[in-house]
Write a structure and sequence with these properties.
Blueprint: H1 2-16, E1 20-22, E2 26-30, E3 37-44, E4 48-49, E5 58-67, E6 69-76, E7 81-88, E8 92-96, E9 112-121, E10 127-136, E11 151-154, H2 160-163, E12 174-179, E13 186-193, E14 200-205, E15 211-217, E16 224-228, E17 235-240, E18 249-256, E19 277-281, H3 286-289, H4 294-301, E20 306-312, H5 316-329, E21 336-340, H6 347-354, H7 358-372, E22 376-379, H8 389-405, H9 412-418, E23 425-429, E24 435-437, H10 452-460, H11 475-478, E25 484-490
Helix pairs in contact: 4-10, 5-10, 6-8, 7-8, 7-9
């Protein structure tokens, strides 16, 4: 089933690209009717920018007809407005974008997710749009929402604790009624829960007070959760049970149909048995610092289902940063937080002791492997990159777990629940044998001409609490290239081409 879905996705991606053909030097675009064509060359467009950083667009547009009008826009994908809009009338077949660069002031752009849109129009008003998504790093304003246009009442407590932008305040329990605005169609409800376990019911109603959507039970073990609403919904009722550990809603937002920003997290649960690639990370950022573009490359370029497991740390702030980072990578599957004790412990044995003992940790990792059944696993350097004991521990336990996961005599509870599973390949960061070097700094049309590494850098920018201590360019990171791996275990033979973790599997 996994292979069939992957093949179908590949075909869909191929068909969706027929209007633009890519090669190393140029791309050719056509208008909808095919009468107007443009070939681009030497294009210079941003992928990511620091806030306040300048950039000069460049490249040549060569049309089969005169380009009568040229429009250059920078559109904010969360605020739904143009930050820049410039219109010129070149009336030429060949246009050099550099001639208009002075009108496009990237230095003044606010932080956030953007799209550069270049629209060329011929005399018959045929249009060709050339797009490039990019990000201006830094803390951006939250996506536009219609919460302020709703009438919200609560049976008890302070509702403003859920309506403000402080995720450390919360509305704890009771009934919340949300009357949706009459002239707007709501798309969904986005809730940032203060803790994972919340006994809650959420129901939406139409004008006749008929239930349209109903969400019952716990908050699905997601810290950030999106609840889609029927287009006819006019009212939402939330009933939240009081509990000892239940601190309720840290933030609630209502979004309008057709105006849900790209950074609004709409997570999916990866179905059991559906993982292609499992990335096991010691800390909530190591998958970026040390595995670089692995997740975006295999998610977007190879169309794999990638599942991320974070082993250590249970603080809420860094969980939210990790979620924002994963969403920025384009990975839509909610990751697994194992919540083992953070900190710097005494070697592998000391770390395992702090985590509850080797057999306990091993049983939990084996359970995840058996449950999600990945073909390939990626994890840390055996030496812990720069020597971190948690990194070493994760590498050690993953290797043991791979062997135990296929043995029905080990950890019989998870074997009975999920069956055994034999992983096909294990890649270890910086492993000295059977080396593989990935091209994460190469650009790919599947991610809009960006590089997987640039997406990893954008994702790391979401880890605000780590800024100043760590970075993608820190010596303790660049000394251990995120593109370098070794094949430490295989059931399908050694790599020959040495350019793909799924060699001999696909």
């Amino acid at each position: 089933m996994k292979r069939t879905i992957s093949l179908l996705l590949s075909i869909i991606m191929l068909l969706s690209a027929v209007s633009v053909s890519f090669n190393v030097y140029a791309a050719t675009y056509k208008s909808d009717n095919g009468d107007f064509k443009i070939t681009t060359s030497n294009m210079k467009r941003p992928s990511k920018l620091n806030k306040g950083q300048g950039f000069v667009i460049g490249g040549k547009l060569k049309g089969n007809r005169k380009i009568e009008k040229l429009k250059i826009e920078v559109y904010d994908l969360n605020r739904f407005k143009n930050d820049i809009s410039v219109t010129k009338k070149p009336k030429k077949k060949t246009v050099r974008l550099g001639d208009y660069a002075k009108y496009v002031r990237f230095r003044k752009l606010p932080s956030g997710d953007k799209k550069l849109i270049i629209t060329a129009t011929d005399k018959d008003k045929n249009e060709i749009k050339i797009n490039r998504e990019f990000t201006v790093l830094g803390r951006a304003k939250e996506p536009v929402h219609i919460t302020g246009k709703c009438k919200i009442t609560v049976s008890r407590g302070n509702k403003n604790n859920a309506l403000d932008t402080n995720d450390d305040t919360y509305w704890s329990h009771g009934k919340m009624i949300i009357i949706l605005p009459k002239k707007k169609t709501a798309d969904g409800l986005y809730i940032k829960w203060h803790v994972l376990d919340n006994v809650v019911t959420i129901k939406s109603y139409n004008k006749k007070n008929k239930v349209l959507d109903s969400y019952d039970g716990y908050s699905n073990k997601m810290l950030n959760k999106y609840y889609p609403l029927d287009k006819d919904a006019v009212k939402v009722v939330i009933k939240l049970k009081k509990g000892k550990e239940n601190k309720g809603i840290a933030r609630i937002r209502v979004y309008e149909k057709g105006r849900v920003g790209v950074s609004v997290q709409r997570w999916e649960r990866l179905p059991d048995g559906e993982a292609d690639l499992m990335v096991v990370s010691a800390h909530r950022d190591d998958e970026l610092l040390y595995f670089g573009g692995t997740i975006p490359y295999y998610t977007h370029v190879k169309h794999k289902k990638v599942y991320v497991i974070y082993m250590s740390g249970d603080d809420r702030l860094r969980h939210r940063e990790a979620l924002a980072g994963q969403w920025a990578l384009g990975n839509k599957y909610y990751p697994m937080f194992m919540n083992f004790a953070g900190g710097y412990h005494n070697g592998i044995s000391g770390t395992l002791k702090a985590w509850g003992g080797e057999q306990y940790v091993l049983s939990r990792v084996v359970e995840k492997i058996r449950r999600y059944k990945p073909d390939v696993i990626v994890t840390h350097d055996e030496r812990g990159e720069y020597g971190h004991p948690t990194h070493k521990t994760v590498s050690y336990i993953v290797q043991k777990a791979i062997k135990a996961a296929g043995d029905k005599s080990k950890f019989k509870t998870s074997a009975k629940q999920y069956g055994t599973w034999k992983v096909k390949k294990l890649y270890i960061h910086m492993y000295p044998k059977n080396k593989l070097v990935m091209k994460y700094k190469s650009s790919y049309p599947e991610i809009g001409g960006r590089t997987p590494y640039s997406l990893a850098c954008i994702a790391y920018d979401k880890h605000y609490s780590q800024h100043g201590r760590w970075s993608m360019t820190a010596k303790a990171v660049t000394k251990y290239p995120s593109s370098n791996y070794g094949l430490a275990y295989t059931r399908v033979g050694k790599d020959i081409k040495k350019n793909d973790m799924f060699e001999h599997i696909d």
